[in-house]
Amino acid sequence: MARQQECLRDLYTFGSDAELAGRWLDALVEDCRAGRAKEVRGMAGTLKRWRDQILAFHTTGASNGPTEGLNSIIKKVKRVAAGFRSFANYRLRILLAVGACNWSLLGTAPR
To answer: Domain tally for the chain?
Structure first.
């Protein structure tokens, strides 16, 4: 399993060479299919189903990393707060946490 994980990680080092990445991914799928562990064989099916989306990174360079990072911050704010009664306060706390608070728009600019 560790070898397959490393191969999947290496897939993202090919930059914009989608053709090379595609061949690498196909070889990884075959390697997973031959794996002894049920989880590794299951990973082969997942990689095959998501092939186009995985390879899209090599043509677009797009990643959902920033979105996942923002979601993580929002979940942390919610967990630390132990519940908000006001959506406005919840929203403000999130904006403060991500450093996107524009005080002049909130009508509460410090004097």
So the answer is: 2
Tell whether 70 and 55 lie within a shared domain: no
Q: Distance between CA 28 and CA 102 in Å, rounded? A: 47
User: In the prediction, which pLDDT does 111 show?
Assistant: 57
Cα–Cα distance measured from residue 32 to residue 38, given in angstroms and rounded to the nearest whole number: 10
Q: Is the pLDDT of residue 44 over 70?
A: yes
The answer to pTM > 0.70 is no
Average pLDDT over residues 70-87: 88
- Interatomic CA distance for residues 33 and 57, integer angstroms: 24
